[in-house]
């Protein structure tokens, strides 16, 4: 084991993140960091894995908090990051009581802006052959955005990070103005946040290509978790195997991987139909 080479998993005290850490501990030749916003739950998660003979390292990390990111950065700055798996995220259910604007702001803050802030802070420490995996969703497919103009902007190979952030901020501002967004952005802030994550994935891949860093995103499937209130058709363990394979043995870079482990065109037909066999209204 190389103690200077590390893998980092965010939001890893339960569910998919926990299962990813468990798998990485068995397969990655280095230190695996289990991180979580809640320190008590994160330490308990590590103890659970230690009982299985595994040796994750815990560090508190709230990706929405700049001070927390800075503390983590200082902690790992003398190490080499080989793998980053950006897993932390939130989802408001359709019957959530919180006001729409609150749901929108929190969803894009955690799933999009905070993911980017953390990832960008880690980039100086990633190795030449490093791998970044962003946990996305079927909701991140570009077809989920109704507006053709927006789809073109998101998929432009000339899109900059500043422009991407401006697009997402524009969505939030439109919600504040109480605009009718059904035929423009759609009705789901989760979709917008995950489309943003995918756009960031491909933007980052272009920026890091010359450095040999592979950047990909993945829809892990409808994973059984607290976030889905226990519903789903994929166990965290099964989903984790696809995620970890992408992290340790990526086929290429700039890929959007479906839950079956196969790459799909981000700007192509909806894979929920031709892969999952789902009827889309």
UniProtKB/TrEMBL annotation:
This is Uncharacterized protein. It comes from Dendrolimus kikuchii.
């Amino acid at each position: 084991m190389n103690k200077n080479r590390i893998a980092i998993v965010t939001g890893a005290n339960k569910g998919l993140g926990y299962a990813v850490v468990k798998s990485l501990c068995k397969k990655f030749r280095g230190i695996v960091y289990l991180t979580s916003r809640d320190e008590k739950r994160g330490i308990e998660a590590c103890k659970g894995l230690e009982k299985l003979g595994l040796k994750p390292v815990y560090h508190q990390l709230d990706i929405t908090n700049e001070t927390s990111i800075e503390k983590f950065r200082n902690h790992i700055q003398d190490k080499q990051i080989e793998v980053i798996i950006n897993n932390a995220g939130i989802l408001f259910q359709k019957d959530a009581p919180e006001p729409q604007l609150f749901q929108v702001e929190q969803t894009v803050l955690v799933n999009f802006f905070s993911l980017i802030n953390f990832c960008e802070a880690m980039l100086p420490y990633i190795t030449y052959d490093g791998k970044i995996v962003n946990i996305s969703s079927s909701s991140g497919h570009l077809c989920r955005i109704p507006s053709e103009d927006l789809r073109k902007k998101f998929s432009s190979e000339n899109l900059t990070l500043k422009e991407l952030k401006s697009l997402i901020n524009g969505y939030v501002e439109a919600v504040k103005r109480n605009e009718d967004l059904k035929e423009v952005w759609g009705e789901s802030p989760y979709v917008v946040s995950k489309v943003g994550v995918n756009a960031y994935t491909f933007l980052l891949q272009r920026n890091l290509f010359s450095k040999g860093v592979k950047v990909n995103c993945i829809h892990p499937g409808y994973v059984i978790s607290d976030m889905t209130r226990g519903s789903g058709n994929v166990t965290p363990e099964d989903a984790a195997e696809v995620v970890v394979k992408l992290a340790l043995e990526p086929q290429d870079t700039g890929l959007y991987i479906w839950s079956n482990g196969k790459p799909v065109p981000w700007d192509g037909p909806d894979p929920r139909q031709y892969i999952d066999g789902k009827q889309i209204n």
